[in-house]
């Protein structure tokens, strides 16, 4: 076992993938000598060379568009978008090309591209550096979307994403990059599949579903609630497309209540899909409507207000209390 | 504007009978859309079919014999005939839409014939002539226009990528593919069967797209083996060149750090020579190049377009005299490289090919409804599988009810 941060977990996962398959290449802005603005690719260009760890021109559509061409030639590009808000120049290439090319070719083409995006707020940044845009990509058929929340998942999920023959949008919880945890790097494979949800904490009274940076908030909320005698089951969804509805439905059938929380706006966010699906699957088990606790439907506010915008422990517990009140 | 001012002031000084409109017409710059491409235009065969020399490019056609030239002629005629048949099929309701290449046959055949088997082409949605040269069955191209698929061919079979409809997006794919060739060590080895390059097709309108400009940057800084082949057909649907650029397009290349050349896009020999030179250079490790094939879209943008609303027929008449097929026919005839028998035989072959394409189009089966759930992902996706099952069950519920 080693103690790793999330950033180091991804770094080690990338390294292991690159050692295993010389078709794996990394592309992005400042990912070479600098190691990326979050140092996630630290040291990899030194060890694997400039042909495999490519400092790209400062043009995101170019990163994804050339990754498509490299994938067509048999490579497995792992692209870094420097910040969540900078993926939009590449939106057309991702949605119109990456997601659709396999269907366009009737299965002749595959595009094993990973698009890494540091996601979410809470770091006191200027505009465009704190966004949660997962719903755009989860809504796009042809893409897979996953979100890691701890060092162990960071280490394994990045490797699994790279091994996937489909394009994967890989969300990294920006404000948790330096959270530490134990990882068994000597294992042959990770404990879970890439698309499996995980019961992060067992409980009885209400299920709290979340992913990415909000997993830690949910676990802290469950701890606080336990001290008041309320038992929260926390489900880390891990994968947003596909969603592991079986694991979540099993939890809700046990607890009878579900609160979904994420940083993104609740309006047409992931929570809306989860609520609709769970209502359909677990209608006769539900003691309360599915509730959502998330960001408000507005452009991400200036950082002095972000603590008011982001769901925190108190707002999550307020949602839990409202669910329990039914 | 000063021309008119001069005429007016001359009148003020008492000069008689100055027809200001006539002076303006005589002295106004020739619109680019009917211009002849200017002095830097590479041309080896004039519109009249005269063979002219070019210091840099004559060498690239020196080894072409009469068979090769007859082959070019045959390609041009067959491609035009298939295109005409497709337009007719659209008019008869058999295709939803068709993007005609009429007028651009030489740009496509000349460049397509300059490629080697290991090279790779990334087309727009109008490169039917390039597809022909790569050996792609013309019927493959009709599927997406008929609405039975979005393309549906395996690009690796003929190294001819799927048609890309989003303007300019494929130039980045081409550049990335070229970066892959570099990483495979398949450039600059001197092995003619191994070294490969990529050609990216796009139009004059596409040069305004961010993706095309990003592709230029990526190709330049990586010295990638990619040739950017711009068919400047003068019109981006209804917008003429001057809505896209203030300088000749080939001159854009210099700002990105690689050479650009303007070639007579209706001269199959010149296009072949220029493309061959550019592909040779790219394969040998000299990096990217921009070719601007100066040509003209004789027809509409697509069958849904109405060019009479935005351009004058006189302009089309000017370009009719620059027809790519007529000039090669004149040259072959004048040099006794082909006779009436040959030309008639090509016409017959073209009609037969058109009939085959028509028959193939009409007998193209509609896709099975359930097939729309196929090939969305490589690995199974539960939402797709659930909806496939739901769709099947819903339709099965009607069985016996009819």
* Oligomeric state as shown: heterodimer
The major pleated sheet of chain B works out as: 5 strands, parallel
CATH-defined topology of the largest domain in chain A: Rossmann fold
Overall body shape of chain B: globular
Biggest sheet overview of chain A: 7 strands, mixed
Highest-level CATH class of the largest domain in chain A: Alpha Beta
Helical content of chain A, roughly?
25-40%
Shape of chain A: globular
Largest Cβ-defined interface: A-B, 45 and 44 residues
Q: CATH superfamily name of the largest domain in chain A?
A: Thiamin diphosphate (ThDP)-binding fold, Pyr/PP domains
Over all CA atoms, what is the radius of gyration of chain B? 24 Å
Beta percentage of chain A is: 15-25%
Number of domains of chain A: 2
Total beta strands of chain B = 7
CATH-derived architecture of the largest domain in chain A: 3-Layer(aba) Sandwich
Structure description:
The complex is a heterodimer of chains A (326) and B (402). Chain A has 326 residues and is α/β, with parallel strands linked by helices. Chain A folds into 2 domains: 2-183, Rossmann fold; 198-324, Rossmann fold, CATH 3.40.50.920. Helix content of chain A is 35%, strand content 21%. Chain A has helices at residues 6-20, 44-48, 60-72, 91-98, 101-104, 134-138, 151-163, 214-226, 245-255, 270-281, 306-309, 313-324, and strands at residues 2-5, 24-28, 53-55, 76-80, 114-119, 144-147, 168-173, 180-183, 198-201, 206-210, 232-236, 239-241, 258-265, 291-295. In chain A, the strands form 3 sheets. In chain A, strands 3-2-4-5-7-6-12 form a 7-stranded mixed sheet, with helices on both faces. In chain A, strand 13, helix 10 and strand 14 form a beta-alpha-beta unit. The mean pLDDT of chain A is 98. Chain B starts with a helix and ends in a 6-residue tail after the last helix. Chain B folds into 3 domains: 1-30, no CATH class; 32-362, Thiamin diphosphate (ThDP)-binding fold, Pyr/PP domains (Rossmann fold); 369-402. Residues 1-14 of chain B have low confidence and may be disordered. In chain B, the strands form 2 sheets. Chain B has a 5-stranded parallel sheet, with helices on both faces. A two-stranded antiparallel ribbon of chain B has the order 4-5. With 402 residues, chain B is α/β, with parallel strands linked by helices. At the A-B interface, helix 3, helix 4 and helix 5 of A face helix 8, helix 9 and helix 15 of B.
